[in-house]
Design goal:
Shape: elongated
Distance between the termini: 51 Å
Radius of gyration: 23 Å
CATH topology of one domain: Alpha-Beta Plaits
Largest sheet: 3 strands, antiparallel
Bound molecules: iron/sulfur cluster
Order of helices and strands: HEHEEHEEH
Number of helices: 4
Length: 172
């Protein structure tokens, strides 16, 4: 270690202080101002819909099986063309995530064959009690694109038979 090293470090430190004085404060005035998250940030889950409003979730429980924290509970029921929630045979009649257990690993997202469950960019998670930390399907499901696309709804018979859609690049 040279005798000049402390001086170099001191100058570097003063340089940082000077930079902050020129650039202004870096404090974010949350909640009025919200910090932009990184592209791969994993926040609150969202249950996605297709453009036609049908739910992507088919109640297969692969997300629950993949979850290392045992945070997901799924119960499936049968679709009919008279009362259709999602394409294919089944839909999730119950879908719950215990956010107190979740470690935001993203395994559920990776395991999902229809890209139904996605960890979004919302980091505003707070609860007043343990019960409200269990997010239900109603709170996780994204809104319908238009009011006539709500689920369940009556659809043309024999059209939505495939549970898993054709994907351009399944490895994408
Ligand atoms: S992010 Fe991980 S811990 Fe959280 S629900 Fe998904 S698989 Fe489970
Ligand atoms: S979110 Fe995906 S993996 Fe989980 S039950 Fe629905 S379709 Fe299956």
């Amino acid at each position: 270690m040279s005798v000049l090293d402390p001086v170099i470090e001191l100058v570097r430190g003063l340089g940082t202080t000077l930079k902050m004085m020129i650039e202004g404060p870096v404090t974010i005035q949350y909640p009025e101002e919200k910090r932009e998250v990184r592209p791969r940030f994993r926040g609150r889950h969202v249950l996605k819909r297709y453009d036609n409003g049908l739910e992507k979730c088919i109640g297969c429980s692969l997300c629950a099986a993949a979850c290392p924290a045992d945070a997901i509970f799924v119960e499936a029921s049968e679709n009919t063309d008279e009362k259709r929630f999602s394409p294919g045979e089944r839909y999730a009649s119950t879908y719950e995530i215990n956010m107190l257990r979740c470690i935001y690993c993203g395994f559920c997202e990776d395991a999902c064959p229809t890209e139904a469950i996605v960890l979004g960019d919302n980091y505003e998670l707070s609860f007043y009690d343990r019960r409200s930390a269990i997010y239900t399907k109603e709170s996780l499901l994204e809104p319908v694109p238009t009011v006539d696309m709500t689920t369940p709804r009556k659809v043309e018979a024999g059209v939505f038979t495939r549970s898993v859609p054709e994907m351009k690049d399944p490895q994408d």
